[in-house]
Amino acid sequence: MRERWFGATSRKVAEIALEGTIDLEDALVLDDVSDLAAIHAAHQSGTPVVVRAGTAEEVHAALSLGAVACALVRDESLLALDLAEMTYG
What we know:
Blueprint: E1 3-5, E2 12-14, E3 16-18, E4 28-30, H1 36-45, E5 49-52, H2 56-63, E6 70-73, H3 83-88
Parallel strand pairs: 3-6, 4-5, 5-6
Antiparallel strand pairs: 1-2
């Protein structure tokens, strides 16, 4: 399981997690990556950024942004995505 820093909280979380399995207190939780300004502002202030994703492409889009700490999914099969393969082939 790959992990990422959860904002400036000094803790790490899984880069892909099932919704409801991690504490999202004080995180900016978004339904997609369309609001890049909000993502950037939250990251600059140390606020963890979490994006909900329903498809492999949405997970990939979210985690392609370095400011995103975690992609939240409801489908357990998305936990096994090989992001390196998706990115580099």
